[in-house]
Amino acid sequence: MVYAVPKGEDVHALSNINFDLASGRLLTLLGPSGCGKTTLLNIIAGFLAPTGGQILLGDDPITGPGADRGMVFQQGALFEWQSVAKNISFGPRMAGVKSDVYGPEVDRLLDVVGLSGFGNQQVYELSGGMQQRVALARCLANDPNMMLMDEPLGALDALTREKMQGLILELWDRTKKTIIMVTHSVEEAILLGDIIFVMAPRPGRIEKVYELPFAKRALTEDTRAIKQDPEFVRIREEILSSIWEMEEEIMGREG
Amino acid sequence: MSGSMGAQVAAGSLENKGPKNKTKNARTVSFGDASAVRSIPAFSVIAFVVMMLFWWASTRVWGFDQAFADNFFAENPDVNQEKLLIAACNRSDECGEFSQFITPQQFPSIKDTWNAAGLLFTDGFQNTTIWEHAFTSLWRITRGMFFGSIVGIPVGMAMGLSSKVRGFFDTPVELFRPIPPLALIPLFIAIFGIGDAAAIPLLVFASLWIMTIAARAGMRNVQLSKVRAAYSLGATKRQVLTKVLIPNALPELFTGFRVALGVSWGTLVAAELVGTNIGLGTMIFQARNFTRLDVIVVGIAIIAILGVLMDVFMRILESILVPWQGKG
Question: Cβ contacts (< 8 Å) between B322 and chain A: which residues?
């Protein structure tokens, strides 16, 4: 995949962003608010068109949203008028798949995200963490090439968040999907990110790229122990202070 | 926690005191806490009793000068009370003097109203039973709501989805919406004629703008992320409309429906001024011509009760059809 997204407007939401992302990687986007992480994600999803440059998925340019790039939002964005199972089967149903085909698939996905037996529940009866599990299953039901996640765990409490980080890693390992995830949590970005882009604002650009081993290690090791790893702590402090400096600079410029 | 500003917490337990069905809230601050305020049924009963007492008192105690009447008839034993009433009112200048104890002419007593209601349910008024009047009115409102909805909902939805349509219809909607349907009665009679020909358009007018605005709001209140989620799950525009936008707008449509029903019900009496033969409003105006205040009061009470019942019905329907409302 090739991204080249220079924006030649008065406000450079994003400028001079070029990168390749190999299939099966887990990329986390990190940076101070206003650095264009979500803009970049929305461009990849096809919700926004770049004013310049192009984005290729395989060999094809992205021109709009599509079932090949599933999206998980911060607040689930589930359809309250449908049961959990109906939410999960939304993609296949829209594509005209018959219920005897997607039915077993829904059961399997419920099992994968740890919601066996919840198929007939209404989504508004579920907790925030469970709703995000449904959102992940719904995304997987389409078997997309890529999963795009916009702060998927941002609204969850700390404990649920840790559990869900484990689930995302598990899904990544199991499905071998390419994942791009926007997060505000430095720790989450380091733990989950096979690659991390630390982005800087005005214009939105990639400041630093890290390739880290923690995501793969977390598949077999205890995540809490990894977070105590001296290397993990060092990188966390390094990224935190660089984001801190960026925020300070923004404040200074505005003040 | 040390120092003079520290707090010492030595609470044993926090429990609900009192019997189970009468748990006392342990909250110390409840004034301004909306969740602590609910309707206590006993007080609703008290309010009803107070209203009835007021009715009883205003017809029995203040309106009816019993002493004066007793005195008058004691001094004039040969005066027939019924004949007096008719004679007095034939000479209108004297009607005022006697009206003090001609209470049914001012406001009917509970007993008279009750009797009138009984008669209305069995014999009817002007050869039409109350059932027929009520049914005709309900049918009229149903038609008004139906046409108001099938025009208003698509227009409102289009307004919520397209800037051009929004711009085009904003002018008529914003201009017509504030017009009270009552003001249009003469115009509608001139245009459509009398009877249902004018009454139905009037009721359509009453619900049309409300439904339009409700549908517009329903389309606009969708979370962008839901629409985006649907697109990235492969939904087409048409599927986004039918599977996401419309179901998502249902709670708003329901609210609009309830408001429109209330306004239509309020417009009904006026709508039936246009020369209809049957209907609760018509009945009230016919009763006025015969100075049957008891019938008028019964008509008003039926309108009130039916209005409440319809609202309750809509709420129940809402909780069945859009159970997710307020829980998203």
Answer: 81
